[in-house]
Design a protein that fits this description.
heterodimer, A: mainly alpha, two-stranded antiparallel sheet, B: mainly alpha, MetI-like fold, extended
Amino acid sequence: MPIRDVNNLKLWQRRSGRESLFHWILWLIGIATFAYCWQQISNTTTWFFVWDAPRIANDIWSRATPPKWEYITQLGKPIWDTLNIATLGTIFALVLAIPVAFLAARNTTPSRLFIRPIALIIIVSTRSINSLIWALLLIAIIGPGVFAGVIAIAIRSIGFCAKLLYEAIEEIDEAQVEAITATGASRWQVMAYGIVPQILPAFAGIAVFRWDINIRESTVLGLVGAGGIGLQLSASLNVLAWPQVSLILLVILVAVVISEWVSAKVRGAII
Amino acid sequence: MSNSTFDVQKKIGKPWNKPPLVGRKWLRWALFSAFIVYLILAYMTIEVNWSRVYVGLERGKKFILAFTNPDFTSRSADIWEGIFESIVITVASSVVGIAISIPIALGAARNLAPLPIYLVCRGIIAISRALQEIIVAILLVAIFGFGPLAGFLTLSFATIGFLAKLLAEDIESMDRVQAEAIKASGARWTQWINYGVQPQVMPRLIGLSVYRLDINFRESAILGLVGAGGIGATLNTAFDRYEYDTAAAILLIIIAIVMALEYSSSAVRSRVQ
């Protein structure tokens, strides 16, 4: 226990001298890094705009309220598209994520040396690139529209779903697998009767969780032209139709809240 | 031996079948047919211009080939500037976001805060979680002008919802006995938090912070699309000019940094937790 001696009085302290020195240096480096970063941001900022910000914010607020309620009649199709992008994207992603997950899990992969790293690379590279970037890319390749959005969401979700799924596969109870194997089951039968029932709850949970995230992401995919309600948002922003923007933001907020509620309900029922 | 026939089926009766996922038959069929109907409806409303897709495949091939031959050099100044700005935004917003979310997490833990403070803090968390980063970024760019400041504010705001919520949940599930022991020794409120609560939630806080740093970097890569600074603007320009080799280089750098961050964050998390 580190103790400091002050006038023959033994005082308890949390860290020994070297430890606290180390902590101080760590904090110093951290604060210096932050100060440097802040300076970089500050240098590239036009401070006049920042001081002017409250007035601008007020101005935008007064233009955006009240929302243009009658515009909602034109939002039905975009919302339907958004829902489709999220749902179809999630379904595609799950179909593709299942084999990837089985190839990536240590206990089911056919080859740890060759196939597992490839599966892991697929997982990392699809996960680390945002769906908006995938959408940008796909729009250049297959043209703007809902289809590009579906594929973008699907690609982005593969890594996420496969990662969670392969972690679930690695955590299964081996005894059940062994029991099925002992009955003389083939490799596929072991998978179907020994592994799948164990990961099914996790799978359903992942599916609903990702669907919820995808609803959020698909609302903004239209900003780069990949369909859904984001298209309306960017069109309204471009013509500075703030009452429409505020209505769209409200609709997005409601959609996000509903999807979160649905996913929480479903996950509560499964798990 | 050979003429005695042994009929397993007769001995044990009906063959075993896998129990269905949904018990009730009508519900199973209703769910299944609803799903099919939805798929058909969804498929009918999606217009896929297959000829356009076919034309684009050539470009897709070019892009995939670009990954084998990424061009880091011809736009290196733009790329490094963008990456640097992304990192700056990430670090600054993580620091500020974490600093703000700690008091909010304390307020949002029901076992520490009185009801009015609890409701206010939970409200802040709910707002921050419901608004998507890119939408916040659009609004902040409109208000504060183009540049990394808008991106910095966006990510700080998004960090609050994520970190404060998870930290508050950890505080709520902490061991009360330790905190009470500190209180019994006559500690002030700040001492109580510092010695009774903080040591219990510190591993989780560090783990979440590193994880959020990782997320913030990924998000900072897209903020540039709406003018909030970072590598996204460079990437968008590269796509617009069909410079796939530069775009591939940027994507490879992003993937490399995310992988490095993810690896180090999982190392840190496994050490502290």
